[in-house]
Write a structure and sequence with these properties.
Rossmann fold
Length: 733
């Protein structure tokens, strides 16, 4: 160890006499937080432990004109910290979020004439020790191919990794190291020991710290990031807080994350933490960025209040306060408006991307009417993903939903009605709330699933609109209801809408059989049985009956009798477009491998075992690809059954050998065609919710299977095949 430190001590002396460049001036509209002077060191634990914290972040603004906006970087969940709750209170501001990978930006826009105001955010966090085993990796020889990583090699005004002095010092400190871990250790030790600590401004740049031989916590982090980047290692500065109980803070801390072999390694030269961080380090943002950006003429003051919580208290409070989704990826868009003394709260979830004018109108009218409104928008996607997004939003905002006087689920189909059942899993009761569900679904389906929703939530009223309505019309009805007490069904007549109102009386009017079904599904939801999986089970016999019709009556041949059933079920979770891509990728690649195996002359069982392995590898690769590029459909590739796909590849190869490539391609195309028809019938025909409401349809499916099982007539394709023979017979004398 002493031998490793000798060159670093010599370099320490060399830094004392270097010239000091002029630091870069700070933009007047950017606010970099002050830097905490000293950090208390702690021994690296053998295993991670967790602590629980409550953090209040307040921002006071002066001279902010109406329409002007202030942008603040907000903490998000990651591998070592979890945002358990979040509340936002900002009277006179319109709030929205803007994901900026890997950060999240909160935007508050002034909505009234007052030029002063306060923004208050309250968080509850679970923070764990972050312990990283540094991967064994060689020194980087070239820049990474991933643009997202190359970004962390680019120099900035404060991290001048392209400066000759910094590059020279990085080479000297690195010496003759052979591995990435040795490189990180040398650069870390140099910054931690050869650079003395000091107090000063938050704009201290890397070159200045190197020249002076001393620097603040943030300055030393910038220097280490610059040395790592100069050595070819992607590195970024992380801004955060050192959490202390019952503390009022304004100053922040900074550390570095270096990317080695797919892993971000934490390095804290000021705290002496190499490859780990203690459970009192809270990351606020990643990248050397200003915490707050505001108009140049505005005056901004901010601060943090930190309190440590007991684990029991944190867990008890987790479902008691409102929190808004803080996505790691931009799965939802949030727009909201809050007033000082709200008369009511309206929460709207929609899968329609409303025009900016509609959103602005809703927020403006809400502010004028003293109504708190939160508008959550999920992206356009196949039904399965929209339902997942809506359920996640509802599950993550239970307290927000509980506080709402009116909850609106506005979707293009029955997805909102289906997703709302997740509220029953949390045993949420909305006795004082009205629930509006807007979409396209049969009235019979709405009556049954709406009754399940009413029974689960004990809601004041559940109002269904089985025909699509514009979001502006739905907002007008909700606004009139909370302001003037106008019944929703009466207000709906102004928009030529016919609502279906569900309450105790309508529930009692259901037949005994329907009430039994409602009670059964309500018990299933309460027991946390995933209704989506249950629906897939109910849909399976209907898809099988469709395949029987297509094979027996139409006469379309496919690979395997019921392979299209499983493939169409997989399409329901990936969407038709990506489902076809996945199917063709697996079968195409597997066929090439099968052709290569033909030369080895293996037995059938061995070939299938190898094909299953290949298919598993392809599926894993597609899932990783989906995670890397944010393609949600590829993450569900595992729904494709490996054994059936492997058999399909084997059938393709056998058909190609016996009947030729054209026949094999024809059977593959037929299989995809039948799978697509079954997918369309279920996805666009609303069969999922129909079967959940009327399970007796399965009896009709069995009856159809029995009838077709006795079919002895010609198939439709055979009429086409033998049509010419009939024409020739009529021409005979």
């Amino acid at each position: 160890m002493i031998a490793r430190l000798l060159p670093l001590l010599a370099l320490c002396w060399a830094t004392l006499g270097a010239a000091t460049p002029t630091p870069t001036a700070a933009p007047t509209a950017e606010l970099y937080p002050a830097t905490q002077d000293a950090l208390t060191q702690r021994e690296r634990p053998l295993s991670p432990t967790s602590t629980f914290w409550r953090l209040k972040f307040f921002v006071r603004i002066q001279n902010l004109t109406e329409g002007a906006a202030i942008r603040i970087l907000l903490p998000v969940s990651d591998t070592s910290q979890e945002v358990q709750q979040r509340t936002v209170h900002a009277p006179g501001f319109r709030f929205s979020e803007e994901p900026s990978n890997p950060n999240l930006v909160g935007i508050w826009t002034r909505t009234n004439g007052s030029e002063s105001g306060e923004i208050e955010l309250e968080y509850e966090f679970r923070v764990s020790d972050r312990i990283v085993d540094i991967p064994a990796a060689p020194l980087p020889r070239s820049a990474p191919s991933d643009p997202a990583l190359r970004r962390w090699l680019e120099p900035t005004a404060l991290i001048q990794s392209n400066e000759p002095a910094l590059r020279q010092r990085a080479r000297e400190v690195a010496g003759n190291v052979q591995t990435a871990e040795e490189l990180l250790w040398n650069l870390f030790q140099f910054t931690a020991t050869a650079i003395r600590g000091s107090s000063g401004g938050s704009r201290e740049d890397a070159l200045t710290v190197l020249s002076r031989g001393r620097g603040t916590v943030t300055g030393k982090a910038r220097l280490l990031a610059a040395l790592l980047q100069a050595s070819g290692v992607p590195a970024r500065v992380v801004g955060g807080l050192s959490l202390d109980d019952a503390a009022k803070k304004r100053a922040t801390i900074a550390w570095v994350e270096a990317h080695v072999a797919g892993t971000w390694v934490p390095l804290d030269p000021s705290g002496g933490h190499f490859g780990w961080l203690p459970n009192r380090y809270l990351a606020l943002y990643r990248g050397d960025l200003p915490l707050i950006v505001h108009p140049a003429g505005a005056s901004v003051d901010y601060g943090f209040l930190v309190h440590r919580m007991r684990k029991e208290s944190a867990e008890a409070n987790q479902a008691a306060k409102a929190r808004v989704v803080v996505p790691m990826q931009p799965l939802a868009r949030t727009v909201s408006a809050y007033v000082d003394k709200p008369l009511a709260t309206v929460v709207i979830l929609t899968d329609e991307n409303p025009p900016a004018a509609t959103s602005e109108r809703i927020l403006r009218e809400a502010s004028e009417s003293q109504i708190d409104v939160v508008l959550l928008t999920v992206p356009a996607a196949p039904r399965y993903f929209r339902q997942q997004y809506l359920q996640r939003l509802l599950a993550n905002n239970l307290a927000l939903v509980h506080s709402a006087h009116v909850l609106v689920l506005h979707t293009s189909d029955d997805t909102g009605l289906y997703a709302a059942l997740v509220l029953g899993e949390a045993s949420l009761k909305l006795a004082d709330s009205r629930i509006l569900v807007v979409g396209r679904f049969p009235q019979g389906v709405g009556r049954i699933l709406g009754a399940v929703l009413y029974r689960l939530l004990d809601a004041g009223e559940v109002v269904l609109f089985p025909t699509p309505l514009k979001l502006s019309a739905v907002w007008a009805m909700a606004r009139a209801n909370v302001l003037d007490g106008v019944p929703l069904d009466e207000e709906a007549r102004k928009w030529a809408a016919k609502p279906l109102v569900l309450n105790y009386l309508t529930y009692e009017r259901l037949s005994e059989w329907r009430r039994t079904i409602v009670a059964a599904w309500a018990r299933a939801v309460t027991a946390q049985v995933p209704l989506q999986a249950l629906t897939f089970i109910l849909v399976l016999p209907v898809i099988a009956a469709l395949v029987v019709v297509i094979r027996t009556v139409v006469g379309v041949e496919t690979f395997g009798t019921f392979a299209p059933v499983i493939v169409s079920l997989a399409f329901l979770t990936t969407g038709l477009k990506w489902g076809l891509v996945i199917f063709i990728s697996i079968v195409g690649t597997g066929t090439l491998v099968r052709a290569a195996l033909q030369r080895v002359r293996l037995q059938l069982v061995s070939r299938l075992a190898i094909l299953i392995t290949i298919v598993a590898g392809i599926m894993a690769g597609l899932a990783v690809l989906g995670a890397s590029f944010g393609i949600g459909a590829l993450l569900n590739v595992s729904i494709f059954p490996m054994v059936i796909m492997s058999n399909m590849i084997e059938h393709f190869a056998s058909s190609r050998a016996q009947f030729g490539t054209r026949e094999a391609v024809r059977l593959t195309a037929n299989t995809l065609l039948v799978s697509s028809i079954c997918y369309a019938a279920v996805e666009w025909g609303g069969l999922q919710s129909l079967l959940l409401s009327f399970p007796e349809i399965l009896v009709a499916a069995i009856a159809l299977d029995i009838v077709l099982g006795k079919w002895r007539g010609l198939r439709l394709v055979e009429y086409r095949r033998f049509w010419s023979l009939g024409s020739e017979r009529q021409a005979w004398p």
